[in-house]
Structure prediction request, 59 residues.
Amino acid sequence: MNLYVENKQLFVGGVRIIGVASSSVFLIGDTEVITLSSMFDTPPESVIISPFVPLPAER
Prediction:
């Protein structure tokens, strides 16, 4: 996948993160290359995938 983004005069006043996934990337700024990889050292038959944990309601 090739993604091209051109930001002009980017300003970030604040960031509020209320939840993340098991694999997440959060980036503000410039980068040339992002390389993602993943590795599993557990046999597939022993992996247990459960439902997501609900996040608390915003107040």
Remarks:
- The CA atoms of residues 14 and 29 lie 14 Å apart.
- The radius of gyration is 17 Å.
- DSSP finds no helices and no strands in the chain.
